[in-house]
Amino acid sequence: MREPELYEQSDVARVCKQTDELFKNYEINFRKSLSPEKREATTYYELGRDLYFEEKDEKLCLEFCEIFHEVTKTELYHFPRNIFWDMDFIFFSAYREMKDMATNYGKFLEDFLEIMQKLLDVFGGHSTIKFQYIHDFSYGFDWAKWVKKDKANRKNIGPFSLRFLNRMFHRGEELVELIKQNDAKYYQLGKKENYRNPFNFRREPNEETALLEHLARAGDIPVFCWDKSASPQWQTSFDIKRKIASQQLGIVK
Questions:
Q1: 248 and 210 Cβ atoms separated by less than 8 Å
Q2: What is the pTM of this model?
């Protein structure tokens, strides 16, 4: 068992502090959590500390946290207007998948970083798609919808597994093609449209905040990403729940 003060002196803590500092570059001084029980998202310093006391291999722990440093850079560049920043489940889900591989952790980390950066790049604000938030991804709405389309074969595939991340990236490529064709739903944005919203409810920051907090209080979130030990749920009709909530809040288009 490592002594608590060892973490503060470690390279792992240093990298995690640097990751937290990245948010200040985008004037994000308070990272909101969607948890009904706390206001602020867990910091990377805190996530790194939990990992440091779980993982015996300090070098592997450092490499893992360095990957999330790079992921966060990309995330902030493409989604600077994101509102809720819970990463607990994503962080430890990736760690568990890496450990389940038993060997070649380095290959997993390379693959994870590559697909996460490609995914953020294809959906983000600098892309053709131009989504404003990562909430549909990070809180599992995209994953739950995908599982429902083939429950027998997909129900055991995690929301942040390499398999699903690759599927999400390819879905992004499909959307880009639809936009090129000026699809009715995924059309080419006008010059004054900074972000895309294909949903039937408004998603300006106040509306997005109210809707997601309403759903979180009711437990209608597929992945409680603020809980590193959460049990993702796809069985509920989350899209219908969100539609009903948007009607109740008066934010339907």
A1: no
A2: 0.95
pLDDT tens per residue across span 116-157: 999 999 999 999 999 999 999 999 999 999 999 999 999 999
250 torsion bin: left (phi>0), alpha (psi -120 to 50), beta (else): left
Q: Which two tokens stand for residue 118?
A: 């490609």
The mean of the pLDDT values for the chain is 96
Terminal alpha carbon distance of the chain: 55
CA distances from 222 to 122, 126, 170, 194, 203 (A): 23, 27, 22, 28, 19
Give the tokens for residue 52: 């440091």
CB atoms inside a 10 Å sphere around CB 66: 18
What does the DSSP 8-state code read for residue 18? H
